[in-house]
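To make the argument concrete, we let one protein speak, a sequence paired with a row of structure tokens, as a model reads it:
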Amino acid sequence: MYLAIVITLVLAAASFLASLVCVLLLRRRRKLCLDAEDLEVGVTTARVADGPESGLDGPPPAQKNDIFALFPRRFSWTEVETATANFTSDVIGKGGFSTVYFARLKDSIAASVKLHHSSERLHHAFRLELDILLRVHHPHIVRLLGYCDEQDDQGVLIFEFISNGNLHDKLHSGACAGDVLPWARRTSIAYRLAQALHYLHDGCELQIIHGDIKTSNILLDSDLNPKLCDFGCARMGFSATVRPPAVMTGSPGYVDPHYIRTGMVSKKSDVYSFGVLLLVLITGAEAFDEGTERLLTTVAGKMLREATNGEVAEIVDRYLVGEYDKGEVAVMAAISAVCIGENPSLRPSMADVVRIIEEKVPSAISTVDCKA
């Protein structure tokens, strides 16, 4: 009798252990399957920096047939020379220390190749810009496809090719030629740029200050969606404000006066420049008139006060010939006014700007086709 009981207990224990082993094996198999699935999609969906916070436009998941999922990558100098026909292809941009060439990569992918003409100091700036670009992924920031750092005296950044020029030419040269940027498209550009700046300031693993927000640094794609470019003045990883290098950066008309006075740069410096850009979108005027050396902001005070009170006729770009929403102009003018305020601590955050536009400027987020 006792033997029967012992045999029964032994069999029960063996059955329990067998069941436990099966469960553990199934769990391990399931974990391995999940890991395999993660590895399968990890290459195409992984990002160096965190994406935008909830409510912001983030990058769409890469598809398996998306050739750009292979980028960014390191290119050889020979590949760069081939893509630019040994740097004899069309020059599509030129800066103080760089030249941008049109390029054709493998699989006929159009690209822009930015060649840095480098000294030791400028090569350090190239490395900093590259480090920042490898961390940012946003639909309204120009996409880095690759880079080449083989040459000691030259650095190369390779970007997606944006086909429709920049916002400066569209607002000024385009308007003069009869190609006027509609009001709804202007508000949409402002909103999407605000999202991109909010992402840089608060959505990345390290805060990024762009440092040179202006219309010529905003490219437009075939649908007139904005792509922020040129991170040559950018700074990364600051908790509040820092003292920048001795050489001042930024562009006349857009640069924060507080930065000029103190040499201190912060996220609010970008906010100031964004406020100037809003003023340019509203008025169609240049931020800095080289002929008269006049800053748009010096004559903006009275215009902005009148616009926020509903008197918008005198401030709005004459090329719009009355085709705009007066209430929206007043809101955009009010945003601009607080952004360019003298005290940086009283300027709004880009999160605040995004929220106000979403709430009070319907045309900025409208799905209605408003292509120029």
Summary: The chain has eleven helices and twelve strands. The first strand starts at residue 73 and ends at 74.
